[in-house]
Design a protein that fits this description.
This protein has 4 helices and 4 strands; from the N terminus they run ααααββββ.
Length: about 140
Protein backbone atom coordinates (compact mmCIF):
# COMPACT_ATOMS: atom_id res chain seq x y z
CA UNK A 1 0.00 0.00 0.00
CA UNK A 2 1.32 3.45 -0.91
CA UNK A 3 2.32 6.04 1.62
CA UNK A 4 0.34 9.27 1.71
CA UNK A 5 2.38 12.45 1.71
CA UNK A 6 1.31 15.21 4.01
CA UNK A 7 1.68 18.96 3.86
CA UNK A 8 4.25 18.66 6.61
CA UNK A 9 6.54 16.64 4.34
CA UNK A 10 6.45 19.38 1.69
CA UNK A 11 7.22 22.04 4.27
CA UNK A 12 10.14 19.95 5.54
CA UNK A 13 11.59 19.68 2.03
CA UNK A 14 11.24 23.45 1.48
CA UNK A 15 12.87 24.19 4.85
CA UNK A 16 15.76 21.84 4.01
CA UNK A 17 16.32 23.54 0.64
CA UNK A 18 16.16 27.02 2.20
CA UNK A 19 18.68 26.04 4.87
CA UNK A 20 21.02 23.92 2.74
CA UNK A 21 21.17 26.06 -0.43
CA UNK A 22 23.00 29.02 1.19
CA UNK A 23 25.51 26.67 2.86
CA UNK A 24 26.14 24.90 -0.46
CA UNK A 25 26.50 28.23 -2.30
CA UNK A 26 28.93 29.53 0.36
CA UNK A 27 31.04 26.37 0.05
CA UNK A 28 31.19 26.53 -3.76
CA UNK A 29 32.02 30.25 -3.81
CA UNK A 30 34.79 29.74 -1.25
CA UNK A 31 36.25 26.76 -3.16
CA UNK A 32 36.30 28.76 -6.38
CA UNK A 33 37.82 31.83 -4.71
CA UNK A 34 35.03 33.92 -6.18
CA UNK A 35 34.30 36.20 -3.22
CA UNK A 36 35.74 39.30 -4.94
CA UNK A 37 33.40 38.70 -7.88
CA UNK A 38 30.37 38.21 -5.62
CA UNK A 39 31.22 41.34 -3.62
CA UNK A 40 31.78 43.30 -6.84
CA UNK A 41 28.42 42.24 -8.26
CA UNK A 42 26.74 43.17 -4.97
CA UNK A 43 28.43 46.59 -4.99
CA UNK A 44 27.35 47.25 -8.60
CA UNK A 45 23.75 46.33 -7.74
CA UNK A 46 23.79 48.58 -4.66
CA UNK A 47 25.27 51.55 -6.53
CA UNK A 48 22.77 51.07 -9.36
CA UNK A 49 19.85 51.00 -6.91
CA UNK A 50 21.02 54.18 -5.16
CA UNK A 51 21.57 55.95 -8.50
CA UNK A 52 18.10 55.03 -9.76
CA UNK A 53 16.48 56.25 -6.52
CA UNK A 54 18.37 59.55 -6.68
CA UNK A 55 17.50 60.11 -10.35
CA UNK A 56 13.86 59.42 -9.55
CA UNK A 57 13.94 61.94 -6.68
CA UNK A 58 15.60 64.61 -8.83
CA UNK A 59 13.13 64.03 -11.65
CA UNK A 60 10.18 64.42 -9.27
CA UNK A 61 11.72 67.55 -7.75
CA UNK A 62 12.22 69.19 -11.16
CA UNK A 63 8.66 68.24 -12.19
CA UNK A 64 7.25 69.85 -9.02
CA UNK A 65 9.46 72.91 -9.53
CA UNK A 66 8.05 73.36 -13.05
CA UNK A 67 4.54 72.93 -11.68
CA UNK A 68 4.71 75.28 -8.65
CA UNK A 69 7.76 77.50 -9.26
CA UNK A 70 8.48 77.91 -5.52
CA UNK A 71 11.36 75.98 -3.95
CA UNK A 72 9.83 76.19 -0.44
CA UNK A 73 6.57 74.60 -1.62
CA UNK A 74 8.53 71.90 -3.47
CA UNK A 75 10.61 71.11 -0.36
CA UNK A 76 7.46 70.80 1.77
CA UNK A 77 5.79 68.53 -0.77
CA UNK A 78 8.90 66.35 -1.11
CA UNK A 79 9.02 66.08 2.70
CA UNK A 80 5.31 65.12 2.76
CA UNK A 81 4.41 68.09 4.99
CA UNK A 82 0.82 69.38 5.29
CA UNK A 83 0.12 73.08 5.91
CA UNK A 84 -2.91 75.36 6.17
CA UNK A 85 -3.71 76.91 2.80
CA UNK A 86 -2.29 73.99 0.84
CA UNK A 87 -4.27 73.26 -2.33
CA UNK A 88 -5.89 69.89 -3.04
CA UNK A 89 -3.46 69.36 -5.92
CA UNK A 90 -0.47 70.01 -3.64
CA UNK A 91 -1.92 67.57 -1.10
CA UNK A 92 -2.18 64.88 -3.77
CA UNK A 93 1.42 65.58 -4.82
CA UNK A 94 2.56 65.31 -1.20
CA UNK A 95 0.56 62.31 0.06
CA UNK A 96 -1.04 60.77 -3.01
CA UNK A 97 -4.72 60.08 -3.54
CA UNK A 98 -6.70 59.53 -0.35
CA UNK A 99 -7.99 56.11 0.68
CA UNK A 100 -11.47 57.62 1.16
CA UNK A 101 -13.27 60.97 0.93
CA UNK A 102 -16.27 62.42 2.77
CA UNK A 103 -18.19 65.30 1.16
CA UNK A 104 -20.33 67.85 3.00
CA UNK A 105 -22.21 70.46 1.03
CA UNK A 106 -22.95 73.50 3.18
CA UNK A 107 -24.93 76.59 2.15
CA UNK A 108 -21.91 78.69 1.27
CA UNK A 109 -19.10 76.18 0.75
CA UNK A 110 -18.09 72.61 0.11
CA UNK A 111 -16.16 70.72 2.78
CA UNK A 112 -14.29 67.51 2.13
CA UNK A 113 -12.46 65.22 4.52
CA UNK A 114 -9.71 63.23 2.85
CA UNK A 115 -8.68 60.09 4.71
CA UNK A 116 -5.24 58.48 4.55
CA UNK A 117 -3.58 55.39 6.07
CA UNK A 118 -6.58 53.05 6.45
CA UNK A 119 -6.30 51.13 9.73
CA UNK A 120 -9.61 49.30 9.97
CA UNK A 121 -13.33 49.81 9.74
CA UNK A 122 -13.69 53.59 9.24
CA UNK A 123 -10.40 54.16 11.08
CA UNK A 124 -7.71 56.19 9.40
CA UNK A 125 -4.30 57.41 10.55
CA UNK A 126 -4.79 60.86 9.00
CA UNK A 127 -7.83 62.98 8.15
CA UNK A 128 -7.34 66.22 6.23
CA UNK A 129 -10.19 68.79 6.05
CA UNK A 130 -10.47 70.89 2.88
CA UNK A 131 -12.85 73.83 2.39
CA UNK A 132 -13.34 74.76 -1.26
CA UNK A 133 -10.26 72.68 -2.18
CA UNK A 134 -7.92 74.32 0.37
CA UNK A 135 -6.55 72.58 3.48
CA UNK A 136 -8.06 74.03 6.66
CA UNK A 137 -6.92 71.43 9.18
CA UNK A 138 -5.91 67.83 9.81
CA UNK A 139 -6.03 65.19 12.52
CA UNK A 140 -3.22 62.66 12.70
CA UNK A 141 -3.39 59.46 14.77
CA UNK A 142 0.09 58.35 13.79
Amino acid sequence: MGRRSSKGDGALVIAAVVLIAPVFAYKKITEAGAWPIVIGIGAVILVGYVAIKELSRLSRQSELMRKYGDIQVVKKIMSRVIWDGMSAEQLIDALGKPAAKDHKYLKTKTREVWKYYHQGSNRFGLRVTLDEGVVKGWDSKR
